[in-house]
Amino acid sequence: MQSRWRSPVSQSVRPGATPPGAKPPGTARPGGRTAQNRAAVVGATLSELAEHGYERTTVESVAIRAGVHKTTVYRRWRTKERLVTEALEATAEVQIGVPDTGDLALDLQTLARGVRSVLMSTVGSAAVRALVSGAQSSPEVARVLRTFWAGRLTKVIPVVERAVADGRLPQGTDAIELMKYLAAPLFHRILVTGEPVTEADADRAATVVLVAGRAGVFV
Amino acid sequence: MQSRWRSPVSQSVRPGATPPGAKPPGTARPGGRTAQNRAAVVGATLSELAEHGYERTTVESVAIRAGVHKTTVYRRWRTKERLVTEALEATAEVQIGVPDTGDLALDLQTLARGVRSVLMSTVGSAAVRALVSGAQSSPEVARVLRTFWAGRLTKVIPVVERAVADGRLPQGTDAIELMKYLAAPLFHRILVTGEPVTEADADRAATVVLVAGRAGVFV
């Protein structure tokens, strides 16, 4: 079963994402004009990436597709790099929640299935492929990809930290490294071997890091 | 320390690689004209891939670089696809031996370090990047990459099969899946996070699959 990109239109605007010059937070209520514009621009960015790749995606083409004035896009995001980073983060935010079930195995499985959802969605897959492909020749694209990764990895640190605090993982476990091992086999399938990522694949990736993590391999 | 591409000039020609129309095997002795041509063409293919990427590498440009007539290249390899596949396999053959030390942990470490050598060598890294990048938009490149992988994975099956026979890994362990897990975190570093692959990274990848393999995760 293939997951689909879900519009982030119902998400509230994150305070950290409010740019200088935007209306004060009180007026940017969920579902308001600002949130609607953001959703439209994020969706348009992902569609442009999916159809045309990173190089041929421009702030102008995104604005036209989103049906907003290009100065609106420039004012808020300033560069294509920031636009693409935020769009990718929005995909991941919607599809990869940060779980806290109290069960480490289940938390890791949920994370792995979230990564799978991004990689198997039409738009997420295309965006990741476009970026990984572009990153091999463009330092700018490589930076977007690294920024995206750094952002995602930071958010999942609490899952590992809670497990360490509870004694479910050894002291000193490197959360970032563990997360990379969770994601790498799933990326490898779509990027290198050209295989789909099934739920069973996601679950295996979660089990591998659970077993290795408990054995202290990520300390 | 960065590994370097070593010329396969001293390698004998594998029987399976002898095309129809080539001289009979008895005349293709190691170090002879055929082996020299093969080494030159393989080296030229890797250099072309590294400098120009898959799309702009042609049988003609490889022949010029190798200093052989293009009909020689066409007669033996017929298509760019076969040429690139064999060139990549030659890199991996030289740099990833199939170890048999009697110690599973050491065998896996040797394999992981071999993958690292390919990924960190100037030419191997460029070739892998060019292919992974190209595979995202070209079905032909994707096929080259899959063929290369299938070939490599088949060769390391014995390492896992011996371990299963000896009871060092559980019955039914999937050798192919285990090898993918060994390689994936190393590919992820160079392709996605843009980090170098150190020996410590290779050793960690080996330990992760050893621990997970023993726990029966690849059954």
UniProtKB/TrEMBL annotation, chains A, B:
A matching Pfam family: TetR_C_11
User: What GO annotations for molecular function exist for this entry?
Assistant: DNA-binding transcription factor activity; transcription cis-regulatory region binding
**Which SUPFAM superfamilies does the record cross-reference, listed alphabetically?**
Homeodomain-like, Tetracyclin repressor-like, C-terminal domain
Show where the HTH tetR-type domain sits.
35-95
Coiled-coil regions in this chain?
none
Residue ranges of region Disordered? 1-35
Q: Which domain of life is it from?
A: Bacteria
Tell me the PROSITE patterns matching this sequence. HTH_TETR_1, HTH_TETR_2
Entries under InterPro entries matching the protein: DNA-bd_HTH_TetR-type_CS (IPR023772), Homeodomain-like_sf (IPR009057), HTH-type_TetR-like_transc_reg (IPR050109), HTH_TetR (IPR001647), Tet_transcr_reg_TetR-rel_C_sf (IPR036271), TetR_C (IPR011075)
The protein's name in its UniProt record: TetR/AcrR family transcriptional regulator
What organism does the UniProt record list as the source?
Answer: Kribbella qitaiheensis
